[in-house]
């Protein structure tokens, strides 16, 4: 073990673990049930939910995050609530309005695109339906690395035009689409590799397409999370608490990256989401390009308090302003480990709060015995790597 607080022994840790299987409403990442292991520690609850296909060395980061939340608790918060984006899976356009209903007040919407078996027209239809249903929202898309450079260069241009064309502020018949109005906020992980992302950014610049590229998998699954930014492969970063090894590591990485970061979930239960909210709440704010009005909220708990403020490298940093976090995934579950209402979206925001699972729900959602054994074995192996 490292010097940070943690369980006395592996048996102490395993005694505190509850493995649950959460049934999902919508297929996401190809799954309909999400298993996670929850840990009750002296400082609160932590979540270990590394995706099953991840090897132990990668999953060990997720365990470190669970232990940090359970034995140290969250870092000091700079705000009392966190703006959240709505997340639209790669569903048929007709399902979009129903999904948006589960995201009350969200002014940013993330749309999954480039799904296997679908075409760009399906992505355009989904984005257009978002803007018809919620005129004026900011739209970002996530391709999960599925496009080639050529496909991405084309798709980003088309999707950006679709957003501009739908701009609700344009009167009918007002003439050509305004090219200086807000288009796509960013495209998340358009291509799989850092080299491709670098090439894509060069292509977009040469084509005059001014859409930011955000790296997700290139940070989450990389040995060196800073590499993609240093190589010029992305303008922004999507950061997730568990894969980076906990909220404090996320804050350190964000400070080193020096670009706008979006804190996002990894399809976490309410316990894992609360760790993401804690990290987002501790993140120093920065001025956001062209969209100040949506973020001028009054959520600052104590803008001068907390270590996190010291991380800011932007002299004009505004501690109230962060990009909407991708933490609104709780609605994808039929049932979660806390009562509905405990960690609920209000006015497009999630509250900063500690989440304590309901014992009856832990029992009702308990995973099958063989799955529990699988998770306990995995925790044992990952713990040995810390
Ligand atoms: O960012 C969001 O809005 C939701 C989270 C999300 O999309 C996600 C959830 C689980 C695994 C991967 C991803 C992803 O961003 O690619
Ligand atoms: Mg992503």
UniProtKB/TrEMBL annotation:
InterPro entries reported for this sequence:
Enolase-like_C_sf, Enolase-like_N, Enolase_C-like, Mandelate_racemase_C, OSB_synthase_MenC1
So which domain of life are we looking at? Answer: Bacteria
The cross-references to SUPFAM superfamilies, in alphabetical order and at most eight, read: Enolase C-terminal domain-like
Q: Which residues bind Mg(2+)?
A: 142, 188, 216
Active-site residues from the entry: 112, 240
* Gene3D superfamilies with a match to the protein in the record: Enolase-like C-terminal domain (3.20.20.120), Enolase-like, N-terminal domain (3.30.390.10)
EC numbers on record: 4.2.1.113
Similarity annotation: Belongs to the mandelate racemase/muconate lactonizing enzyme family. MenC type 1 subfamily.
Its biological purpose: Converts 2-succinyl-6-hydroxy-2,4-cyclohexadiene-1-carboxylate (SHCHC) to 2-succinylbenzoate (OSB).
The protein depicted here goes by the name o-succinylbenzoate synthase
Say which species the protein is native to: Dietzia aerolata
């Amino acid at each position: 073990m490292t010097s940070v607080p943690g369980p006395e022994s592996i048996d102490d840790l395993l005694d505190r673990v509850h493995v649950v299987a959460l049934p999902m409403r919508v297929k996401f990442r190809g799954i309909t049930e999400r298993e996670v292991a929850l840990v009750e520690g002296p400082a609160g609850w932590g979540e270990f939910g590394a995706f099953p296909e991840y090897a132990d060395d990668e999953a060990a980061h997720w365990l470190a995050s669970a232990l940090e939340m359970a034995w140290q608790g969250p870092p000091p918060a700079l705000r009392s609530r966190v703006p959240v984006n709505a997340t639209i899976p790669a569903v048929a356009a007709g399902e979009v309005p129903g999904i948006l209903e589960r995201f009350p007040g969200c002014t940013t919407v993330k749309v999954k695109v480039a799904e296997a078996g679908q075409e760009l027209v399906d992505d355009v239809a989904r984005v257009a339906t978002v803007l018809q249903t919620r005129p004026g929202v900011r739209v970002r898309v996530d391709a999960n690395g599925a496009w080639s450079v050529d496909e991405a260069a084309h798709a980003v241009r088309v999707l950006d035009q679709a957003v501009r064309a739908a701009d609700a502020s344009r009167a009918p018949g007002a003439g050509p689409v305004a090219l200086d109005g807000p288009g796509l906020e960013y495209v998340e992980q358009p291509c799989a590799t850092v080299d491709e992302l670098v090439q894509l950014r060069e292509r977009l610049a040469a084509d005059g397409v001014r859409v930011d590229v955000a790296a997700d998998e290139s940070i989450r699954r990389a040995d060196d999370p800073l590499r993609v930014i240093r190589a010029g492969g992305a303008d922004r970063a999507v950061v997730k608490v568990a894969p980076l090894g906990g909220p404090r590591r996320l804050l350190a990485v964000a400070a080193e990256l020096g670009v706008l970061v979006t804190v996002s979930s990894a399809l976490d239960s309410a316990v894992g989401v609360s760790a993401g909210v804690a990290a987002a709440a501790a993140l120093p704010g920065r001025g956001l390009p062209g969209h100040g009005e949506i973020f001028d909220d009054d959520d600052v708990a104590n803008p001068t308090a907390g270590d996190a403020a010291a991380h800011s490298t932007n002299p004009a940093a505004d501690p109230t302003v962060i990009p909407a976090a991708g933490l609104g995934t709780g609605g994808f579950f039929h049932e979660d480990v806390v009562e509905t209402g405990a960690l609920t979206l209000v006015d497009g925001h999630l509250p900063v709060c500690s989440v304590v699972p309901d014992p009856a729900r832990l029992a009702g959602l308990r995973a099958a015995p063989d799955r529990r054994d699988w998770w306990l074995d995995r925790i044992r192996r990952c713990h040995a790597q810390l």
